[in-house]
Every structure is written in structure tokens, then in C-alpha cells.
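Review form for a predicted model. The reviewer records the input and the model, then writes brief findings.
Reviewer: anonymous (R2)
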Amino acid sequence: MITVLCYGDSNTYGYSPYTGGRYPRDVRYTGRLQTLLGEEYSVVEEGCNGRTTIHDDPVEGWKNGRDYLKPCLNSHKPVDIVTMMLGSNDLKRTFHLTAEEIAEGAGVLVDVIRTFTEEKQGFIPKIVLISPPEIGPGIRTSPFFGSFDEGAIEESKRFPQFYRVVAERYGCIFFNAAEYIRPSEEDSLHLTPEAHRIMADELYNLLKTL
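Model under review:
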């Protein structure tokens, strides 16, 4: 069985902008991806609301993506494929980070994946580095406005150029989520069920070629 670890934030978790809860498994992209890939694959859903790349949230410090990455990789090994979509939460005002700095943080995590898996399972998985979707234009009316401001909109549009550079540096597969999906109008951050469906379809097409 081929193990696919999907490591990410609230959009990997399946946060619903309509209820504040979690989409059912057959709605969120990770669950749909499992259905599309079939029984020869095991898709591990590792999404956490608010997770950053390598930065400690001043209120909820346990959401640093680097802290949980090694335990996660170790508990699910052997891992054959890792998809990682992180960076949106790094756009919060509290961090004062640019898209380039955020992409470099994602690169730190890619390096952890490479070195740790080589040591612990004897081989490096295929890594799909996903550049996150853009922050929506209605962020000012979002319930998350304050944590995010309008500067996050333009900065999020710069993700692909820098994530691509990091992916090329580490020999990852680059996937630009913003090419296919947009966040909901409800909160300008989280995905609609349709976006989850598209995300699953596009990742399926990619993973089947590996």
C-alpha cells in the first residue's frame, strides 16, 4: 500500500467557512483523494487549524508546523508521498512576513522531511510542495479580519513564484493551488466544497503520474 501524507493547515483539515466545523470526509479534498486513489493507497489526513510553517503562534504556540513534523513522519512511516500545503497562516499580521520568507520557511520543512525520512525509513518520499491559494479580496469583512489584513491579499499572490524556487531547490514537485481554486466569499480564507473537489481531482491527476 502506498502511503500519502497530506500535511497542512485548516484547508487540509477541512474547515468549513459556513459552520466553523469540519466538512465530512467525503467533502474535504483529502477524503476525496482517498476515494479517487483507491485501496492501493492510504491517505493520511494531517491538517491542523492555524498551523504555520516554522513560526510559533504567540497565543497557540503548539501550531508550529516544524514541531509536529518529525513525530508525524515517524508514526506513519514508511511514507511514500508527502503533500504539504502551509503558509497561509504565516500571513497573519503578528508575524510580519513576506511571501519569500514564508516560502523559505516551507523549505525548512521540506529539508526536515528529506533528512528525517532518509534516516528513519531509508528513503526519501516524493514531496509535493503546494503553494497555497490566495487570500480572498473580501478579507476586510471576514470574521478573521484583524488576524489578517488587506496586505495579506497581495502577499499571497506572490506565493507561487517563491514556492516554485524552493521546490526546484529541493527537487520537489511544485503544485500551484491558486491556479485551480479560490477561497470562499464567506471568509476569504477557507475552501468551498467545490474547491475541495477540484483540489482532489487535480492532486489525483498529479499523484497518478508519480
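Findings: The longest helix spans residues 99-120.
Further findings: The longest strand covers residues 2-8.
Recommendation: see findings above.
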